[in-house]
């Protein structure tokens, strides 16, 4: 009987990875149990003893877990990167964010902006507002949203715009639309890497899942969900 593979991953990769799980299970006969949290929370829970077989998280956090002996040394592989984007409720007026000036204008004109305050993307966005010199004007409009709920909050009308990795925006369709990715000068890609637990229940099965997620055969599906390969 095949072992159940416990996959613990960051919320931003959830839509893309979930699109592949059934294909893997059908091909191998294995089952995959998934759990999703914000990047920092994944790391904290694993440090606290959360059991897992495979993890998908920011590379720097994965390295920390490797140093701690939680992730098997040498098992790390770069999974992909996700661009930052702006979300709006379906049916909203067209919005231009194609240049730095247009991006700033959109933020300053918005009534409210949802963001994942505790996540990697939220941390970057907060710093970006400071760098652009518009923090004092924009921060009062920010709506801190729990992990994984930024785009849905926009769809529910709880904020006019949302700033979040594009995977989450695409996954919230049709209630939410992708206004666009951040301008190139401001873009920050959120990188993700895969690692295998140093205490995996079935290291061979975990390796098989890692290899499947890294295969070129799934690149098109990942791209459609917003994940760009390295």
Describe this structure in words.
With 230 residues, this protein is α/β, with parallel strands linked by helices. The chain folds into 2 domains: 4-81 and 190-228, Periplasmic binding protein-like II (D-Maltodextrin-Binding Protein, domain 2); 84-181, D-Maltodextrin-Binding Protein, domain 2, CATH 3.40.190.10. The protein has 10 helices and 11 strands. The strands form 2 sheets. The chain has a 6-stranded mixed β-sheet with strand order 2-1-3-10-4-11. Strands 7-6-8-5-9 form a 5-stranded mixed β-sheet. β1 (4-10), α1 (14-28) and β2 (31-37) form a beta-alpha-beta unit. The chain starts with a strand and ends with a strand. The model has no long low-confidence stretch (mean pLDDT 95).
Keywords for this structure?
230 residues, alpha/beta, D-Maltodextrin-Binding Protein, domain 2, five-stranded mixed beta sheet, 10 helices, 11 strands, elongated, ModA/WtpA, Molybdate transport system substrate-binding protein, molybdate ion binding
Tell me briefly what this model is:
It is built from 10 helices and 11 strands. It is an alpha/beta fold. Strands 2-1-3-10-4-11 form a 6-stranded mixed β-sheet. Strands 7-6-8-5-9 form a 5-stranded mixed β-sheet.
Overall shape: it is elongated
Number of domains: 2
What does the main sheet amount to? 6 strands, mixed
Could you say what the CATH topology of the largest domain is called? Answer: D-Maltodextrin-Binding Protein, domain 2
CATH superfamily of the largest domain: Periplasmic binding protein-like II
Instruction: Count every helix, treating DSSP H or I runs of 4 or more residues as helices.
Output: 10
User: Structural class of the helices, strands and pairings?
Assistant: alpha/beta
Query: Strand sequence of the main sheet, in spatial order?
Result: 2-1-3-10-4-11
Rg over CA atoms, rounded to whole Å, is 18 Å
Low-confidence stretches: none
- SSE pattern, N- to C-terminal: EHEHEHEEHEHHEHEHEEHHE
Total strands: the figure is 11
**Amino-to-carboxy terminus distance:** 35 Å
């Amino acid at each position: 009987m095949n072992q159940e593979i416990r996959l613990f991953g960051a919320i931003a990769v959830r839509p893309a990875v979930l699109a592949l799980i059934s294909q893997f299970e059908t091909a191998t006969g294995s089952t995959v149990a998934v759990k999703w949290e914000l990047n920092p929370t994944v790391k904290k829970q694993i440090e606290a003893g959360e059991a897992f077989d495979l993890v998908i998280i920011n590379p720097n956090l994965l390295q920390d877990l490797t140093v701690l002996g939680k992730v098997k040394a040498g098992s790390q592989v770069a999974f992909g990167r996700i661009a930052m984007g702006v979300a709006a409720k379906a049916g909203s007026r067209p919005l231009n964010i194609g240049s730095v000036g247009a991006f700033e204008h959109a933020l300053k004109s918005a009534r409210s902006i949802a963001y994942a305050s505790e996540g990697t993307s939220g941390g970057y966005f907060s710093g970006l507002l400071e760098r652009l010199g518009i923090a004092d004007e924009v921060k009062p409009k920010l709506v801190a949203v729990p992990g994984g709920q930024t785009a849905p909050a926009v769809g529910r009308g709880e904020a006019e715009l949302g700033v979040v990795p594009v995977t989450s925006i695409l996954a919230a369709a049709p209630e939410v639309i992708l206004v666009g990715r951040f301008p190139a000068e401001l873009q920050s890609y959120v990188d993700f890497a895969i690692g295998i637990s140093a205490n995996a229940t079935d290291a061979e099965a975990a390796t098989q899942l890692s290899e499947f997620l890294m295969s070129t055969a799934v690149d098109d599906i990942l791209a459609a969900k917003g994940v760009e390969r390295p």
